[in-house]
Amino acid sequence: MQAERGAKGFSCGDQFVAMLFASWDKPIRYERFYEKIFYQLLGKCRQLDFGKHRFQFKNKLFSLDATVIELCASLSDWARFRQTKGAVKLHLLLDHDGYLPVFAHITDGKVHEVKVAQAMTFPPGSIVVIDKGYIDYELFWKWSEGGVFFVTRQKDNARYQVLEEKPIPRNRNIISDQLIELEGFYSHRKYPSPLRRLEVWDEENKSKKRNTRLSFSLMGC
């Protein structure tokens, strides 16, 4: 390797790496090279026994999230995110049986998470954990009709009325357990069924957290 660098005029490893990444301004992006690396790593990960999620229920558990990856706008004008920056958004679905991704999709940085989630399908009985960025009542109703459960954080401006206060188990971090109904006209029209609302105490951050899940979820309403 050292001889090759000297023959080609490279004086150090840093210069070699810099020249390597300079090739990214060319049309060829080496997709097949990275695809091969991905499947090699995936094969090795699948050989490891991570086990299944350690919860009492046997339902399939998924976590869905997205993250923005900033790029150089001058090299990636197709992914322009702001005036001087480019970006792509990685949408990732994690299966907690084995803790490996089962779905990965890269879009322009401006594409909303809900648009990608709407194209996904899950087996009946699955539980999907999402953050507030995925709150879309039409999406939730579609999942509900397909027998898919969801767990998400509640928005601070959510309008609802409490239909029922459920008993609170002792020696747990649950502060309240409610059956609620959405009050907003459009929200209620998109999701007309009751929802389960939980308020729990987060000991690590010393704060309250509000979770909303389907009324016919595993907790049983």
Please characterize this protein's 3D structure.
With 221 residues, this protein is of the alpha+beta class. It folds into three domains: 1-48, no CATH class; 51-151, no CATH class; 154-221, no CATH class. It contains six helices and nine strands. Strands 3-2-1-4-5-9-8-7-6 form a nine-stranded mixed beta sheet, with helices on both faces. A hairpin with an 8-residue loop joins strand 6 and strand 7. The radius of gyration is 23 Å and the shape is globular. Mean pLDDT is 78; it is low at 1-10, 13-17 and 214-221.
Summarize the entry for a quick read:
With 221 residues, the protein is of the alpha+beta class. It is 24% helix and 32% strand. The protein has three domains: 1-48, no CATH class; 51-151, no CATH class; 154-221, no CATH class.
Q: Which features characterize this protein?
A:
221 residues, alpha+beta, 9-stranded mixed beta sheet, 6 helices, disordered C terminus
- Helix/strand-derived class? alpha+beta
Topology, number of strands: 9
Number of domains: 3
The percentage of residues in β strands lies in 25-35%
Largest sheet: 9 strands, mixed
Order of helices and strands: HHHEEEHEHEEEHEE
What would the average pLDDT be, to the nearest integer?
Answer: 78
Strand order of the largest sheet: 3-2-1-4-5-9-8-7-6
Separate helix tally: 6
Our measurement of the CA-to-CA distance between the termini, rounded to an integer number of angstroms, reads 66 Å
Summarize the SSE layout with pairings:
Blueprint: H1 2-7, H2 13-22, H3 31-47, E1 61-72, E2 85-95, E3 100-108, H4 113-117, E4 127-129, H5 137-145, E5 149-153, E6 160-165, E7 174-182, H6 185-190, E8 195-202, E9 207-214
Parallel strand pairs: 1-4, 4-5
Antiparallel strand pairs: 1-2, 2-3, 5-9, 6-7, 7-8, 8-9
